[in-house]
């Protein structure tokens, strides 16, 4: 009877909850288990090892269980090379394909474990024709003949383990709270910004137009000018509102200094777009002196790349906006590998889009006045994110302050 | 046929929307009208006058229409003295009683118009036995034999008119927005605080425990110490969390400086209450040196009165908490007449309770991270309130800063 | 001195609040007024007429005031033909351009008033070269040489007037409430659906993927099959989840009949897309028998047009998705002129996108579990919308029931 | 050196996550561990056993760690009888008191383990003078001389273990989702209602006034009449709105059948209270025929006990309302021991109040349109609750339907 398989688990499998999730999942799915071997790390520096026989109610059930256990980090004892099947057409996934997690992943080819490049969730793994490399490939990029990994055989992932040392900020991962001390949380984010740069990694800002509405434009522009932001992901709205504010002092016609709607101010939005159209691009508008301050200005002046993705509700849009969503995704993905930290501020659409492409080990902080945005981000797989329920207009000036305080203290 | 009555309207009845609401209501309710006289104020300083015949489909319909028009400020032409009926029992309202608005109100007695004292919404008007005075009386205070005003006859109200001069902050009344510039809004609130004190009126703070959770305790305590808050309305939770934080550094067991839960910190909440129990009251705990800082400390030290109202979910509660809700309401009402401005921060229960007792002319600012709290407050009649969707932990430190900046600039 | 102009107002200008808004705006903007003539409609069927001299503090201020009054329906007495200026480049708006409202609009050309076609907010008005027609034109469609209307001269709009007869549903326009009787509200929506069809107008559904998650797929498919929906506007997510559910019983891997996550169910999402890729399109998948039920199936079977607009967070997307946001907007606009009612369910992105293109007289009902979505829709100009805070999974089955009950009762 | 202690863990300690939480907490708090013995249950029916030496950085640290481990279910090897200290005054807690969880709890007295009665969270354990019984005692009931348990010595708790068999509904515990299939969720709740009654346990309804506003009054009354609800916990608002609706057809003046505000309807609220005042109580109003239908009517007719707790924002209140919050809590606690399931609908205040008093094994379902209410309930310790983001007006009629369907199917 072949509805039984052996798996093994290695590492800090108890205190990281891996053992729990594995046994739980077997029971949840109607299976059964026998623990064949269990060497527990006696001290906190020791790793543990477990060998478990998994029984399914039938062979389909067993496959389903194994597939789930794999996602918790279990490996089949009898691991072999990956099975590869050529894609039968562009963007047509083979039956039984291996669907990626956002954890670091290796595949076994010719008896060697090689790293999967550009890991992101819900992709296929495509192995190069020479079988020397493997790459996580979104469905939209799958081409006829691509060698696609099938099933979990020969695939290993490394779910995040709790670090052995107590990390200051880590305890908040996966949490959302509107009941935390605001200044304390912001101080920790400021510290992570400096630490990320110390490690030589980049910081991306994913921002929505509320940054401008709520009066955080200049604090955000300062963050960019002073070098704390390395990449900007946004939409037409953020860029247009920023230009409108910096050309006319308004955001969708509201005077930011008074909070009042300005007569005929609603036109400023279209004038702002039009001025950039006339110049040809944001860069040209900066170069020819039309745009003299703000978030987009600082990006241009400081060579900070930006990806502005179009959406169905855009006015204009600005000439810099990539209106095709697949092209915009590709452009966004170009910058992902260098990123060590992402700040997502007041935009559900772009936050989820970027979250979809991030490996699990990128520190992700999402700030929104609406806790539902944070819940949705995490539900969609960015479970490593730290959710902060706050107001962009208060958050950014306070963050800039805290960064300055930390820098001063560290001098 | 008696289903027709004449009403008159006086004042800035066009640009304050009163004329619109009156005609609209007549149509909405199935009635009809004829405008008998209409002298429109030609210039902005002129008042207008209208006399309108109102027709109802029958006499009940006409009564219903007249009752509604009254609430928009219309007066019956043939106004006579109020009709009075003695209450048949304690807390038993007579049929057809006049139910108050929160607008300034006068009643006609012995052919003279006298002001109704302590106006608040949804009360009865009780006229004194000597018929020299009238007072808005909540149902819970109605006593057998009280002379209760029946119907709108002989009752005049003054709904708020748009002021002729453009007021900076006023345009926001009745609005809620998470898309306003945060710093700008806070600056306006700071200005209103100073202006209210210049007018010799008092400022009440209605606060929830999130003031402590979000790290705003010391900014709030400073506001009290520096004299910007004159009365505190809250519950057991705010006071207990404040004491817990100032005795042990935690709020419900979370260390406010680190945002982390402290081992056994959940006991601090009960210890905090117990320490005040032991002292006998907050005041005694301050006097004997147990409580040395925080919101409640500053209240005691600066003779700022506080009303702590009990609720069904309280632990303890503190000895200063008034556990009977009717007694607590009465105590709260004692302070209402002197108040010119109310800051409601992060508490739906107490905000609505205080809002219920406020006349319409008290400037009411409500700050909450959850826009639903603001909507509910306004839906329950506090339509003059200004709603700010923000985070107490960011709001209070920023408000204190802005008050300081304004004071410095005005020197 | 030229900082004074005469305007006139005609219609139910008092009870529709137009007179109030006009006088208010003048005062708000620092101007002054004199009412030169005011004939008030004495009875509810009579219209009123007012002639008002408006004074500004200077000529710029006067222009700003006049521009605002125009948007309330005021007309300049000395109205002349529109001023036209050719656009200097593609998508470059001329200085001083007239920015449209979503109200019915006319322009005066050669002394005749002609209707502006395809009115939608925040567009330019372009007059044809032969000056026989005028069309609201989004900035993205503006071409070099187009004749663009400048300023409010020669432009008339008709803001909505309160209808004279009491309409059942109308009182809710512009309101949001989670505190209304759910069944009552749904019954009214059902009635409007039948009434819209009686008038020969079409009904559009704008839907998000929560329709599937919350279990409303089959009720929605029934609505389409039974002819209550004429056009579908959505994104990749709704269509993909619908296909996934109808092929595999899951939505993003959750079994809709049990609410539980299915092992390896996360792959179903990609399989669903892949199956449609293989077929070539949704239509072909229906034709060749792959897709046999659901929302998209019913659209294909019943020749209900759909516009699926791409977004940056899409997986796949399906071959039917229009990935370029500007192309998708154009496609969406093709269907707008025939629409009399729009149901927006659980999607902020698509709701605002469609709302942007709708004339003010289209009945717009927006249902979302999150009141912020409704607030944002209205804040962005769709002020005629009726907001319902409810759950798609409860709403659609109850709506279908109510439609059936109404139909049965009317037999 | 005494900063090391041995603890033991027994049961399904791996798959219930207990082992993980224990080791994690030690590391989080700066401690260290050595696993001395670990017998793992090889099969799913076997229990595991672990003996662990815990090292703290000093004796205070060790105490803190042990205290935390205790709450995860760890027991000290060298367990002895509990330490008892008499309370020095009413409501004054002794230093180092044991603070209860909401898990089943035992204390060791005279070498025997006895169950703690009336377990609820954040209480003290008071042992009777004869040392024969122990009872969880809220601080407000603590009296001078009461024998209070100090520290975790001699105290054992049973945190919930994952049940070995796969329970249908259980997987949702501690979760909140607006993205679940509504009908499916409601069907499961219906099933739990029937199952709870089969087990001979009682079902409590904790309800807010939105039950009336949203039109769920009669479905809720049916639930009571048909015997599905055994106890009602609410406030003045639910009862008053129910009476208002059943006497006058309105709720806070809104006609529930049309959703429109009724002229002078705001008075109905006070009339409703007044009518009950006149009768003397809800029961008398039912007995003398004044109140003939609705939620409160069915409670009286069917001898369903209700506890109506007062709050600071009440009008009236009704004579049945317990205005003192401490008296109301006591009354509420009288009914807790018999309860097997609680439905909390649209009330944050009462839900948290009841949640505070419930043992962890009571099935708790909380339904609210606002996900923040659910988050707060769980954050305050009711972590076993199942949160459903839905609309009371849709939920109750659908729940009644599902109960009827299940009953019919089981016939």
What is the number of strand segments of chain A? Answer: 20
Shape field of chain A: globular
Question: Quaternary state, please?
Answer: homotetramer
Q: Helix count of chain A?
A: 13
How many domain modules of chain A?
3
Second CATH tier, the architecture of the largest domain in chain A = 3-Layer(aba) Sandwich
Quote the CATH topology of the largest domain in chain A.
Rossmann fold
Q: Please report the two chains with the greatest interface, counting residues with C-beta closer than 8 angstroms to the partner's C-beta.
A: A-C, 54 and 54 residues
The name of the CATH superfamily of the largest domain in chain A reads putative lor/sdh protein like domains
**What structural category arises from helix and sheet content of chain A?**
alpha/beta
Between the first and last Cα atoms of chain A, what is the distance in angstroms?
68 Å
Radius of gyration of chain A, taken over Cα atoms and rounded to an integer in Å: 24 Å
**CATH top level label of the largest domain in chain A:** Alpha Beta
**Could you tell me the mean pLDDT of chain A?**
90
- Give the low-confidence spans of chain A: none
Largest sheet of chain A: 7 strands, mixed
Strand content of chain A is 15-25%
Helical fraction of chain A: 25-40%
Structure description:
Four copies of one chain form a homotetramer. A seven-stranded mixed beta sheet of chain A has the order 5-10-8-9-7-6-11, with no helix packed on it. Chain A has a seven-stranded parallel beta sheet with strand order 12-20-19-18-13-14-17, with helices on both faces. In chain A, strands 2-3-1-4 form a four-stranded antiparallel beta sheet. The relative contact order of chain A is 0.11. Chain A contains 13 helices and 20 strands. Chain A has three domains: 1-77, Alpha-Beta Plaits (2-Layer Sandwich), CATH 3.30.70.2690; 79-160, conserved putative lor/sdh protein from methanococcus maripaludis s2 domain (conserved putative lor/sdh protein from methanococcus maripaludis s2 fold); 170-410, Rossmann fold (3-Layer(aba) Sandwich). The model of chain A has no long low-confidence stretch (mean pLDDT 90). With 411 residues, chain A is α/β, with parallel strands linked by helices. In chain A, a hairpin with a 2-residue loop joins β15 and β16. Chain A is globular, with a radius of gyration of 24 Å. In chain A, α5 (217-225) packs parallel to α9 (295-301), α5 packs parallel to α13 (392-410) and α11 runs parallel beside α12. Chain A starts with a strand and ends with a helix. The longest helix of chain A is centred in the last third of the chain and has 19 residues, at 392-410. The first copy, chain A, has helices spanning 18-28, 59-71, 182-198, 210-213, 217-225, 236-248, 266-279, 282-287, 295-301, 325-335, 348-357, 371-379, 392-410, and strands spanning 4-11, 32-39, 48-55, 75-76, 83-86, 105-109, 112-117, 124-127, 134-137, 147-150, 155-157, 176-177, 202-207, 231-235, 250-251, 254-255, 306-309, 339-345, 363-368, 386-389. Helix content of chain A is 35%, strand content 23%. The interface between A and C is large, with 54 and 54 residues.
């Amino acid at each position: 009877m072949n509805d039984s398989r052996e798996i093994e688990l290695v590492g800090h499998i108890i205190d990281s909850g891996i053992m729990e999730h594995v046994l739980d999942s077997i029971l949840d799915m109607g299976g059964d288990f026998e623990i064949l071997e269990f060497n527990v790390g006696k001290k906190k520096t020791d790793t543990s090892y477990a060998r478990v026989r998994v029984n399914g109610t039938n062979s389909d059930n067993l496959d389903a269980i194994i597939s789930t256990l794999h996602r918790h980090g279990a490996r089949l004892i009898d691991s072999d090379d990956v099975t590869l099947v050529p894609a039968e057409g562009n963007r047509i996934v083979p039956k039984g394909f291996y669907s990626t997690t956002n954890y670091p992943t290796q595949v076994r080819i010719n008896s060697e474990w090689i790293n999967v490049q550009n890991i992101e969730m819900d992709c296929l793994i495509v192995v190069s024709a020479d079988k020397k490399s493997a790459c996580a490939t979104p469905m939209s990029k799958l081409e006829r003949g691509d060698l696609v990994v099938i099933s979990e055989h020969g695939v290993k992932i490394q779910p995040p383990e709790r670090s052995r040392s107590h990390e200051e900020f880590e305890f908040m991962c996966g949490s959302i709270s509107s009941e935390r001390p605001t200044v304390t949380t912001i101080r920790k984010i400021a510290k992570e910004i400096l630490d990320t740069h110390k490690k030589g990694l980049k910081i991306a800002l994913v921002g929505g137009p509320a940054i401008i509405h709520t009066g955080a434009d200049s604090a955000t522009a300062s963050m960019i000018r002073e070098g704390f932001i390395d990449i900007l992901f946004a939409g037409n709205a953020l860029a247009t509102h920023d230009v409108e504010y910096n050309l006319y002092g308004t955001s969708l016609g509201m005077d930011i200094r008074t909070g009042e709607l300005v007569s005929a101010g609603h036109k400023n939005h279209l004038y702002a777009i039009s001025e950039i159209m006339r110049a040809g691009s944001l860069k040209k508008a900066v170069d020819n002196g039309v745009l003299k301050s703000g978030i987009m200005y600082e990006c241009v002046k400081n060579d900070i790349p930006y990806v502005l993705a179009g959406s169905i509700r855009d006015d204009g849009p600005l000439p810099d906006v990539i209106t095709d969503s697949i092209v915009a995704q590709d452009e966004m993905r170009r910058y992902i590998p260098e990123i060590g930290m992402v700040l997502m501020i007041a935009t559900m659409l772009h936050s989820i889009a970027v979250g979809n492409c991030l490996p699990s080990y990128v520190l992700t902080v999402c700030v929104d006045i609406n806790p539902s945005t944070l819940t949705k981000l995490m539900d969609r797989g960015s479970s490593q994110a730290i959710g902060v329920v706050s107001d962009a207009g208060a958050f950014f000036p306070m963050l800039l302050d805290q960064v300055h305080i930390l820098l001063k203290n560290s001098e």
